Amino acid sequence: MSQPPVLILHASGTNRDDEAAQAIRLAGGHPRIAHVNELRSGAVRIADHAAVLLPGGFSYGDALGAGGRLALELRTWFSDELAQAAENGKPMLGICNGFQVLVKAGLLPGPMGEPRSVTLTENAEGRFECRWVTLRVEPACRSGWLGAIGGTTIRCPVAHGEGRVAVADPSTAVHLEDGLVAFRYLADGPRPTSNDPVPAGGVYPANPNGSVNDIAGICDDGGTIVGLMPHPEDHVFDWQRPSGPEGGSGLPLFEAFVAGAR
Fold it and tell me: Is the distance from CB of 186 to CB of 134 less than 8 angstroms?
């Protein structure tokens, strides 16, 4: 499979699907953007694709909360198909609104159908954040396809008002640290650390939203489903990078994603 087919799921209000498709194409995959209604009608099937990507944007205008309606649709119409795809080891990636959808659908950290102990909620600073951040791909993350780039850093933008990873209790934060943290916000220089399992929200502005333990993204227990709030698809060319630290392209993330679909 030289160019694995990657389904990019679109809903009304989604606006980062073209950029996601470009990143998949550069990484060697064959992207197909499809509206969720095409899946409902059977014209497009998850089973016919090697991987699934949920891009960023404002699906359905966030009318039921960030990602809420699309998450409801995934649970109602496609839960069996998505569960089968995960069981088959097909990589799934959610970016920004796509991450919100995966969390609120119960796919992250999962399993779907159990009470949710993780959510994405309003930024701690109480405002929309749109600027560049630094991430580390956590080397201890249990995601097999993401492991190829474990320990590397990515420079890319954030653009969200509800990106704060919040947990129901300290034990949930401890559980996430058992290989489910996929990405973590980093400072460009030294930053304070804490041994508290649920720190007070990290250091602003390096942690743009106050996420617990500086978490920028997580994976599920099986390691096939991954989500993150920042936008690595907005740094796949050198010319997209503003002045500041060089390197840190988001393209290796998409290359790992496509490689995991082969």
Answer: yes
Distance in angstroms (rounded) separating the CA atoms of residues 70 and 138: 28
Q: List the structure tokens of 44.
A: 């497009």
State the alpha helices, DSSP H only, in 138-198: 170-176
Backbone phi, then psi, for 5, in 5-degree steps?
-75, 125
The one-digit pLDDT tens for each residue of the chain (262 residues) are 589 999 999 999 999 999 999 999 999 999 999 999 999 999 999 999 999 999 999 998 877 677 889 999 999 999 999 999 999 999 999 999 999 999 999 999 988 888 899 999 999 999 999 999 999 999 999 999 999 999 999 999 999 999 999 999 999 999 999 999 999 999 865 444 444 333 334 578 889 999 999 999 999 999 999 999 999 999 999 999 887 667 899 999 999 999 999 9
For the full predicted model, state whether its pTM sits above 0.90. yes
Is 96 annotated in the active site? yes
Determine which one of 10, 19, 73, 96 is catalytic.
96
Catalytic residue among 129, 231, 235, 255: 231
Concerning whether 73 is annotated as a catalytic residue, the answer is no
Catalytic one of 73, 138, 162, 233: 233
Nearest one of 152, 155, 162, 154 to 132, comparing CA atoms: 155
Class (C level, CATH) for 5-261: alpha beta
Active-site residue flag, 30: no
